[in-house]
Amino acid sequence: MGDGGPFILSIDQGTSSTKTIVFDNLGNVIARASEPLKTHYFNEGFAEQDPEGIFQNVLTSVTQCIEDFKTKGYDTKDILSCGISNQRETFVVWDENGIPLHNAVIWQ
Question: Domain spanning 7-106: which superfamily?
Answer without folding.
Answer: ATPase, nucleotide binding domain (3.30.420.40)
